[in-house]
Amino acid sequence: MKAMKEYLIQNNISPGIDFLKDFLSKGAGNDDFTQNQILGGVKSKNNFCTYEAYKEGNLVGLLTAWTSDFHPYCTYFSLATNPFLDNKAEALLLQSLYKTPGIRFPLQTLIWETSYRLKTFYEDNEFVEIRRTYMPMLKSSKIEINRVFADIASHKLTIKDLYSIKDNDLLKFKLTMLIKENYSRTHSKNPVGELDFLKWEKLIFNNETNQNGSYIALKDNEIIAYTLLHFSETPNRFEFGWRGTKNYTDIRVMLMLTALQVNFAAENGVDFIEAEIDTTDHFAIEMLKFFPFSSAPALLTFQKRENR
Fold first, then answer.
1. CB-count burial class (<10 Å; 0-12, 13-18, 19+) for 178
2. Exposed end of the chain (fewer CB within 10 Å): N or C?
3. Is 0.85 topped by the overall pTM?
4. What is the mean pLDDT of residues 100-118?
């Protein structure tokens, strides 16, 4: 217990961003994801708390927690410490989070699989890994649709891009409800909040979605598959968005629509498409298995459902 007294835990209501950036640049190194996750949590309008750990007057650890309007049933947090010290700072920061009035369980955090120190720490503190997320890239190319998908290319399917249906309220409704249903199913351990139809629709039909490169497949006037494509802040890249089917038997149709997106990128001079693939998302995993994505480390989502 005496060793624990070497540390001072401070609840910082208005932390200095530049001060924290300097600490994170030393602790997180070139890991932009971890830095952005922590700074985003600190600056979030839904920030719940931010704790700092000091040893001999020096900042050696930081934990920030926040809530999400989209996934409102848990508390997100991120933790960073000086990697060359003992792990007492991690333990004290986590205990401070547990004791914060109004804290909502489950607690959820995201780390790289290569962050073995934190992975071990969370497992020792009864956190459970609930999914892995891969963020690989796919090089655009010209795929011969009729040859690769000869088994379905001749089916009586109608392919439309989202731009062509922007004024078709019925198809927009059907697409929005199908995406909502599939997304909710893949996030059962961290449920979506009660969003109305218009909010879901705005998540699909907005300026971040490349509507010319996002597709739906229709059969007998029913949507059986969809694939969304997004613009990227990084030059010469697109981002794969939500994708799925009405029935699992139509996975090949979804993959064909994805191939059309790869061709679309190549035709528009975009060399790479980024992906964010959760292991809980059956549709994204099928895409990962089918296309030659680059190798990439996984992000691990850990969750603790109660304070024991």
1. buried
2. N
3. yes
4. 93
Contact 125, 109 (CB under 8 A): no
Question: Mean pLDDT, to the nearest integer, of 287-297?
Answer: 96
Residue 192 located in a structural domain: yes
The pLDDT assigned to 215 comes to 98
Q: In the structure, what pLDDT confidence band is assigned to residue 29 with cuts at 50, 70 and 90?
A: low
> The domain that contains 128 carries what CATH number?
3.40.630.30
pLDDT, averaged across the chain = 92
Q: Cα separations (Å) of 259 from 129, 141, 207?
A: 32, 9, 23
**Boundary-marking domain end, from 133, 156, 171:** 133
Q: Is-contact 65 19, C-beta < 8 A?
A: no
Residue-level pLDDT at 237: 98
CA distance 133 to 130: 10
Residue 17 gets which letter from DSSP?
Answer: H
Cis peptide before 106 (omega within 30 of 0): yes
Is residue 154 over pLDDT 90?
no
* In a shared domain, residues 116 and 152: no
One domain, residues 285 and 157: yes
Specify whether the backbone of 235 is left (phi greater than 0), alpha (psi in -120 to 50) or beta.
beta
Q: How far apart are CA 193 and CA 177, in angstroms?
A: 15
Residue with the two structure tokens 């059962």: 188
Percentage of the chain beyond pLDDT 70 is: 96
- The domain tally of the chain equals 2
Nearest partner of 177 among 159, 154, 145, 203, judged by Cα: 203
